[in-house]
Specification:
The protein starts with a helix and ends with a strand. Strand 14 and strand 15 (402-408) form a beta hairpin. The strands form four sheets. A six-stranded mixed sheet has the order 1-6-5-2-3-4, sandwiched between helices. A five-stranded mixed sheet has the order 9-15-14-11-12. It is of the alpha/beta class and 409 residues long. It has helices at residues 5-11, 21-28, 51-62, 93-111, 124-127, 132-138, 145-150, 152-160, 164-167, 169-184, 196-210, 247-255, 262-269, 274-281, 285-304, 306-319, 336-341, 345-351, 358-366, and strands at 17-18, 34-39, 66-71, 119-122, 186-192, 215-219, 232-233, 236-237, 331-334, 343-344, 370-372, 375-376, 383-384, 394-398, 402-408. It has 19 helices and 15 strands.
C-alpha cells in the first residue's frame, strides 16, 4: 500500500481543506480506509467537473483504500442549497432513482463495483425510511440553528429566501456519514469545498453520537483559465456519457484547453507521474500542443477506454491533415436522396450539434468561421450536394476546432 497517497493528492492539487492533515496522512498510510463522496442524482450523467472527486477517489483506491460512491436518492429529493441562489427543481422519486442507477452504471468503469473493489450505494435506502419525529429527537437535537445560519451556504440563501425543506439538507448529509460509519466502517468523507460546512456537520455528529473521531477533506472548486466552471463550456456540459458527448468531442475538450491549464490538468486528470506532468506542462509553442494531445488521450482513455481514445486520436489527426482515421469523429449518416435534393448547410450544422441553432450557423458563416471540406463558406444560403461528397464523406467544421462528418448510406 502506498505510504504517501495523501501527499500525492496534495501535490496534484486535489486538497482544499482537511480536518487534520497529520492524522489523515497517518490513517492513509496504515490500514485500508473506507471513505465516501456523495453525488447528486439530478441528471442521468455526470460531467467533467465530477472528475475532480472521481480521480481523487481512484488515487485512493489504487493505494488500497475502499471508496463508497454514494448517489443522493434521498438528499436530491430535498435539494442542496450550497452555491444556489434559488430552490433546485424538484424531481420525482422515480426519476431520481433512475438517475442514480444510470450514474452508478456509468462510473463502474472507474471503480469496478462488480469486482468488489468499491461500493455503490444510494442514500435513499436509509433516508426514505426515517421516522421524522424520531429523527428530530435523535439527530436534530445535536444541531445548532445559530451555527447553521452562520454557514456560507445558508447565509447566501437567507437573502433570497431559504425553504424549510432545504434547511434539513445538512442534517441529512450528516446522517449519511453517521449511517456509513455505523454500517460500513466509513471514517472519511470527501467533497467539493462548498460542502465543507455540511461535511464538518457529519464529523461533529459522529463525535457527539458515537464519541469517535473521523476525518474530512474537500477538493478545490476548479475553474479554467478563462474563468469558466470546470466541465462547462459555451456549448454546454462536457458529459461523461458517450451517448451525450462523443469520445471525439470529449477528446477535443481537453486538447483545446488553455495553455495555462495544461500542467494543472495533467496533474489532476491523468495518472502520469508528477515529473512527467511537469515536463509536459512546461513545453512551449508547437511542443505544448503535443502535451495537450497527451492530456486529451490520457483523459479520454480513463473515461472511455483505450479503443475510444485511439479512435479519437486518429480522427483528430485526420481532421487536421496529419494522417489518421476519421472513424472516431462524430458522424451522421444521410441518404443519397437527401443529398441529391440539396441540404441547407445552416440546418445541417444545427441538427448535428455543431452549433446551437440555424441563427448561430448563419452568424458563423457571416464571420467566416464555417467550412465544408476545409473550404470557407461565404454564402449564408449554401446547400450541400453530391458535388461536396468525397471519399471520406463531407467534413463540416465550425471555427478551428469543432468537426462533424456526413456520410451517405
Amino acid at each position: 500500500m502506498s505510504n504517501n497517497v495523501f501527499d500525492e493528492l496534495v501535490e496534484r492539487g486535489f486538497i482544499a481543506q482537511v480536518t487534520d492533515a497529520d492524522a489523515v496522512r497517518k490513517a492513509l498510510s496504515e490500514d485500508p480506509v473506507t471513505f465516501y463522496v456523495g453525488f447528486d442524482s439530478t441528471a442521468t450523467s455526470l460531467h467533467a467537473g465530477s472528475l475532480v472527486p472521481i480521480m481523487a477517489m481512484m488515487h485512493l483506491q489504487r493505494a488500497g483504500h475502499v471508496p463508497i460512491f454514494l448517489t443522493g436518492g434521498g438528499t436530491t429529493m430535498v435539494g442542496d442549497p450550497s452555491g444556489r441562489t434559488e430552490l433546485r427543481q424538484m424531481l420525482s422519486e422515480e426519476r431520481i432513482r433512475a438517475n442514480g442507477a444510470s450514474i452508478h452504471a456509468q462510473v463502474n468503469r472507474y471503480f469496478h463495483f462488480d469486482q468488489g473493489q468499491a461500493l455503490a450505494l444510494d442514500n435513499a435506502d436509509w433516508l426514505l425510511q426515517l421516522n421524522y419525529v424520531a429523527f428530530l429527537r435523535d439527530i436534530g437535537v445535536h444541531f445548532s440553528v445559530n451555527r447553521m445560519l452562520a454557514a456560507e451556504a445558508y447565509k447566501q440563501r437567507m437573502e433570497k429566501g431559504l425553504s424549510f425543506i432545504e434547511f434539513n439538507y445538512q442534517l441529512l448529509q450528516a446522517y449519511d456519514y453517521l449511517d456509513l460509519y455505523r454500517h460500513r466502517g466509513c471514517t472519511m468523507q470527501m467533497g467539493g469545498d462548498d460542502q465543507w460546512g455540511n461535511i464538518l456537520a457529519g464529523v461533529d455528529l459522529i463525535r457527539r453520537v458515537e464519541g469517535k473521531t473521523v476525518h474530512a477533506m474537500t477538493f478545490p472548486l476548479l475553474t479554467t483559465a478563462s474563468g469558466a466552471k470546470m466541465g462547462k463550456t459555451a456549448g454546454g456540459a462536457i458529459w461523461l456519457d458517450p451517448d451525450l458527448l462523443s469520445p471525439y468531442d470529449y477528446f477535443q475538450y481537453w486538447v483545446n484547453c488553455a495553455d495555462e491549464d495544461v500542467h494543472k490538468f495533467l496533474k489532476m486528470f491523468t495518472f502520469l507521474p508528477l515529473d512527467e506532468a511537469a515536463r509536459l506542462g512546461a513545453l512551449q509553442g508547437a511542443e505544448l500542443r503535443e502535451a495537450k494531445r497527451v492530456l486529451a488521450f490520457e483523459a479520454t482513455r480513463i473515461t472511455h477506454g483505450q479503443v475510444a481514445a485511439d479512435e479519437a486520436m486518429a480522427a483528430a489527426k485526420a481532421a487536421f491533415g496529419s494522417g489518421g482515421d476519421l472513424d472516431g469523429m462524430p458522424t451522421t449518416t444521410i441518404s443519397s436522396v437527401q443529398l441529391a435534393e440539396g441540404l441547407q448547410l445552416t440546418a445541417v450544422m444545427a441538427e448535428t450539434g455543431l452549433v446551437h441553432s440555424r441563427g448561430d450557423a448563419r452568424r458563423l458563416i457571416q464571420q467566416g468561421g464555417a467550412y465544408v471540406n476545409d473550404e470557407r463558406v461565404t454564402e449564408v444560403n449554401r446547400t450541400l450536394s453530391g458535388d461536396d461528397l468525397t471519399a471520406d464523406g463531407i467534413l463540416l467544421r465550425a471555427g478551428k476546432k469543432r468537426f462533424h462528418r456526413l456520410v451517405v448510406d
